[in-house]
Amino acid sequence: MKTDKMKHKMGRGKVVLKRIENPTNRQVTFSKRKDGLFKKAIELSVLCEAEVALIVFSSSGKLYQFSSHDMDRTIRRYRNEKGLHKMNNHGVRTIEVWKNEKDELKKAIETLEIKHKHLAGEDLSTLGMKELKQLERQLRIGVDRVRSKKLHELVSDADEKSGLDSSDHVIQRFIPDGRCSSPLNMNHLGFPSG
Fold it and tell me: What are the transmembrane regions (predicted)?
């Protein structure tokens, strides 16, 4: 019996709070809810003699505001309560921006220091198998790049000293006297016959 009564109950169900995808519906909802919010702010200020200031920016950047008293006075009062009375609005914003940037840079430095330690083989106890394999792969790639650059430098130095171009030098490394008795041998080394 109780379940039958529950089925017939009228009322609004829970509203899922997520962004409204349809722009028209979103604008209608914004307008209705904004009006309701301002109505409540007015009621709060009148019924309870509260000092109320409400600022809303729409998604398009349009400003809507209500203040039961002078808005600037209420904002000054707020800033005094928060200990921000000695700074102007620009100063407050600048300090907040710099503080956030400092915190982000500090985190980035900490992350880079940890990665540097890992690359040096230090502080590996915090890494799991997946991270260790990834680190090993990064180190292997790094070693391959270093060897490749080293080989390139050695070949360049040898070419400068001998006056040979790089391809002649590579061929001479495989064939000590610089001659080849048959094209098959050259093909075997990976060079086309000519």
Answer: none
Q: What are the start-end ranges of the H helices in the chain?
A: 2-8, 23-48, 71-82, 89-119, 129-162, 166-174, 183-188
Question: To which CATH superfamily is domain 16-86 assigned?
Answer: Transcription factor, MADS-box (3.40.1810.10)
User: CA 168, CA 178: separation in Å to the nearest integer?
Assistant: 9
Residue 54 has pLDDT above 90, yes or no: yes
Single-letter amino acid, residue 74: T
Tokens 């008795």 belong to residue = 181
Q: What is the pTM of this model?
A: 0.39
What's the pLDDT tens digit per position in 58-104?
Answer: 988 999 999 999 998 998 888 888 877 655 555 556 777 788 889 88
Identify the three-state secondary structure at position 153: helix
